[in-house]
Amino acid sequence: MTRRTQVAVRPRRTRPKTSLQRRLLPLHVAVSLQGLLLWAPVEKLFMSEIGFDPASVGVMAAAYAAAVPIIEIPSGILADRWSRRGVLVISSVALMLCALIGGLSNNVATYIVGALVLGVYFAMYSGTMDAVVYDTVLEETGDSEAFEKRIGRVRLVESIALVSSALLGGWLASLATPRLMYFLSVPLAGLSIVAYLRFREPQLHKTEEATSLRSHLALTYRTLTQRGRLLPIIGLAVLTSLILQVIFEFGPLWLVAMAVPAVLYGPYWAALTSTLGLGGLLAGKVQLNRPGTVGAVVGLMLLASLVLTSRTGVVLVTIAQVVLALLIVTASIHVTRLLHDAVPSTIRSGVASGVGAISWIAFLPSALVFGVVSKQSGVHAASWMITAVTLCAGALLLTMALRGRAEPSGAHPDTAPETRSGDRGHVWNLHGSGDLVSDLTCAEFVERVTAFLDGVLDSITERRVVDHIPNCDGCERYLDQLRQTIRTLGDLPAQSLGSEDREAVMTAFHDLLR
Amino acid sequence: MGSSVRPFPSDEELTARLRDRDEVAFALLVDAWSSGMLRLARSFVSTDDSAAEVAQETWLAVIEGIATFEGRSSLRTWVYRIVANIAKRRGVRENRSVPWSSLLPTREDEGPTVDPGRFRGAGEPYAGHWREFPARWPSPEQQALAGEVRAQLAAALAQLPDRQRIVITLRDVEGYGSDEVCSILDVSAANQRVLLHRARAFVRGRLEDYFAAVGTESGLATGGRRRERPQPATPCSPLPPASS
Question: Structural domains in chain B?
Answer without folding.
Answer: 8-93 (1.10.1740.10), 107-222 (1.10.10.10)
